[in-house]
Amino acid sequence: MTTSTSITHSRRFSPRQRREWAWAAFFIAPSLIGFAAFVLFPVISSLGLSTLRWNLISPPNFVGIQNYAQILHDPFFWRVTGNTAYYTAGTVPLGVALSLALALALKRHLPGRIFLRTAYFMPVVSSTVAVALVWRWIYNTDFGLLNVVLHWLGIPPVGWLTTTTWAMPAVILMSVWKNLGYSMVIFLAGLQAIPRTYYDAASVDGASGWQQFWRITLPLLSPTTFFVAVMSVISSFQVFGQIYMMTGGGPAYATATIVFHIYQQAFESFRMGYASAMAWVLFAVIFIFTLLQMRYQRKWVYYD
Amino acid sequence: MKRCLIALLIVAGLLAACGKPVEETPTLEVPPGTTVLQWGVWGGASNIPIFKQLIAMFEAQHPDVRVQLISVADYMNYVTKLETLVAGGSAPDVIMISPGVGTDFTLMGALADLNPYMEADPDVSPDDFIPIVLKTLSYEGQQYALPKDFGVDVLYYNKNAFDAAGLDHPDDTWTWDTLLSAAKTLTVRDDSGRVVQWGWTDSALNMWPWIWQNGGTVFDDPFNPTHVTLCDPPAMEAVEFYYSLSLEHSVAPNVAELQQTPFRELFMAGRVAMIYDTFGSQIPFSKITAFEWDVAPLAQGKQRATPLATAGYAMSTSTAHPDEAWELIKFLSGPEAVAVVAGAGGGMPARVDMLNAPDILIRPAFRESIAYARPHMVAPHFLEMMALYRANLPIMAMGVKSVPDTLNEMCDQVEGILQQ
Fold it and tell me: Are residues A250 and B110, on separate chains, in Cβ contact within 8 Å?
């Protein structure tokens, strides 16, 4: 991007430039005000809140970093961190791989591909609450669709949401299904940006489809893959809606995640300060993770 | 030109989005000189008509007072809304309250002591009410509410299931062992081993009757707790037995299964033969047509005990009309209003004269249980403790961790909340 040549003089902006800036400010203002009021201000307040002990009714009192120290001794915190790690390890690789496969499959000019793309994207825009409720019924041990299908295949019913072994896999499966469309659309865009000439040249040289995938598609797709991976990790750390609606953190805290624990501490145990402190710890964890991913990207992301 | 148009569109859009805020409680249009009282209640569509009827009766007797109902359907949402209103200094004048929250609000000075009003008023006396109910709605000598009604837990049972199994119906001689052996006989499985009918169940969070019946307690003094006795042997033994019903003896569904199908639904569908439940469940159960049911007192351990639940009417300390608020509370806890509420069947009247009146139909099992009913929600910070129980009890109930380990952890945490 080249700078405008009219700003080589170091005098005040001309009336025309000031008007341009005024219009720019006016158009940005609504978004900026919304951001300041609903994102910036609450975020800064919650930092202050994390140093207090407050249960909404009694006046708050200052406790410094005691909330953060308490987090280390909270057995539930470590449990939910483990659950969140389990959830992330389950959804991210599976989600990225499946959505890439879907994008590859739907890139060709198949009949009905527009319908299929829409069908895969619909769960993304559907309300998490509605989807969670539907899946709760699908997973029902006695009447759920999934166990009925398993019954046809001769497999005994599985307690999807009623056993500690299967509850988290059940939530992972539902989340992967729900978010497939989003990553698929992004991969589709990335795939379409790869010039056909590379594939043509490779075919001429006798490369198989698999080789073309490994040597051309994947490397040129790596910026997109990186983006999808980073976004998936961040959002999987923040999962809450499905857990709250489908399992309520259960059974026996097997599916409770960090954000679920934060919600509970804030709105069921009325410990606003403690919950805010946990939220900031989560922020720090996500931040460090993302930084690590960005540092590591030089090893495998190929920008031309 | 085009920019002006776009700007105008944005501004118009913003203004349209703002609009008028949704008024939940429209202000009443009243003639001058009328006092308007706000009355906070919880309850869904089934309860609102009763409250409105009570308001009509009250306003007929007090023409210069109007009462505005502020209702929230869900109890937890009601509590949250109350807390915000109290924090903002605009709590309703009269507040329907239950002991778990009442203690905390009294501690913060949000509820007025009604004792001076009772002493000054010749029409109302503490002796009008059932002593244990009145005590449950007080904290450290301060009477923060007068009773609306109360209920106790009993054993609901499916008569048809008992007859089919050839068992005698439950009565007041039942002990823990009788209950367990009956539950074993009543647990029916089909050929694939799936349970078609469970022997017994409850909410899986109601450990109190078992603890008390075994001679244990959760606190040294429920009304003035100084330390936690939940980890003492009698209480721990009781909790182990309670959860062994599903874990060891498999006569009760486990917590996760109950989350899928709540225990009341199981009973109404005929999929469990016995449940421990509250007085109010008679209302939904009255719609059962598939089988006949009845109630019996809870089985006894070393002694008899049953949880007491109640709700009352309190006065906010920030009210601008204390005298009118007192009149409303006096009316609502008085014979006429209590008769209307008792008639709806959600609870038993807490007035001594009405409890024994012939036209109030109460099954004998409930009456018998009143003698040994005890409250469990009266400790300060009860809601915080309840959140702790809800998180920890399922861990024991699912057998993920042993009862002694989980209880010991819980005791430390409850002690921490208590000493706040």
Answer: no
Distance of CA B232 to the CA centre of its chain: 27
- Per DSSP bridges, beta strands B272-277 and B195-201 are parallel
Domains of chain A in start order, with CATH, are 2-49 (no CATH), 66-299 (1.10.3720.10)
| CB contacts, 8 Å: B387 with chain A | 264, 268-269
Q: Rounded CA gap, B286 and B389, in Å?
A: 31
Q: Which residue of chain A comes nearest to B10, CA vs CA?
A: A27
Reported confidence tier of residue B260, pLDDT bands at 50, 70, 90: confident
- Residues A36 and B171: their CA atoms lie apart, in Å, by 66
Q: What percent of chain A has pLDDT over 70?
A: 95
> Is the bond into B375 cis (omega within 30 degrees of 0)?
no
Q: Do the beta carbons of residue B369 and residue B298 sit within 8 Å? A: yes
- Between helices B403-418 and B233-247, what is the axis angle to 10°? 130
Residue B301: the pLDDT is 92
Measured distance CA(B278)–CA(B295) in Å, rounded: 11
* Chain-chain contact of B10 with A250 (C-beta, under 8 angstroms): no
Q: In whole angstroms, what is the distance from residue B373 CA to residue B366 CA?
A: 10
SS3 category, B102: helix
pTM score: 0.79
Q: Is B15 exposed, middle or buried (0-12, 13-18, 19+ CB in 10 A)?
A: exposed
Cβ(A176)–Cβ(A236) under 8 Å? no
Rounded (10°) CA dihedral A117, A118, A121, A123: -130
Query: Chain B closest CA to A163's CA: distance in Å?
Result: 7
What are the pLDDT digits (tens) for B235-257?
Answer: 999 999 999 999 999 999 988 88
CB within 8 A of A162, min separation 6: which ones?
A: A141, A251, B254, B256, B257, B259, B260
Between B384 and B325, the more confident residue is B325
User: Which chain B residues are Cβ-neighbours of A162 within 8 angstroms?
Assistant: 254, 256-257, 259-260
* A22: Cβ contacts below 8 Å, ≥ 6 apart: none
Q: How far apart are CA A103 and CA A184, in angstroms?
A: 5
- The nearest CA of chain B is from the CA of A107 a distance in Å of 38
CA nearest neighbour of B278 among B222, B340, B348: B348
User: Burial letters for A71-99: b for 16+ Cβ neighbours within 10 Å, e otherwise?
Assistant: beeeebbeebbebbebbbebbbebbbebb
Distance from CA of A48 to the nearest CA of B (A): 19
Q: Which residue from B377, B372, B407 is spatially nearest to B393, judged by alpha carbons?
A: B407
End-to-end CA distance of chain A: 18
Crossing angle, helix B48-61 and helix B335-344, to 10 degrees?
160
* Rounded average pLDDT over A5-25: 76
Given a contact cutoff of 8 angstroms between Cβ atoms, the answer to whether B198 and B266 are in contact is yes
Long-range contacts of B134-138 (CB under 8 A, 24+ apart): B134/B350, B135/B223, B135/B375, B136/B99, B136/B308, B136/B310, B136/B375, B136/B377, B136/B378, B137/B99, B137/B102, B137/B310, B137/B312
Residue-level pLDDT at B420:
72
Lowest mean pLDDT among A253-262, B160-169, B236-245, B387-396: B387-396
Top mean pLDDT of A280-289, B31-40, B335-344 is at A280-289
Query: What is the count of residue pairs from A and B with beta carbons less than 8 Å apart?
Result: 82
Question: Residue B28: is its pLDDT beyond 80?
Answer: no
**pLDDT of res. A300:** 80
CA distance A120 to chain B (A): 28
Distance of CA B254 to the CA centre of its chain: 23
Percent of chain B as helix, strand, coil, to the nearest 5: 45, 20, 35
Alpha-carbon distances of B39 from A157, A289, B48, B136, B149, rounded to whole Å:
50, 51, 12, 21, 17
The answer to whether A270 contacts B383, with C-beta atoms less than 8 Å apart, is yes
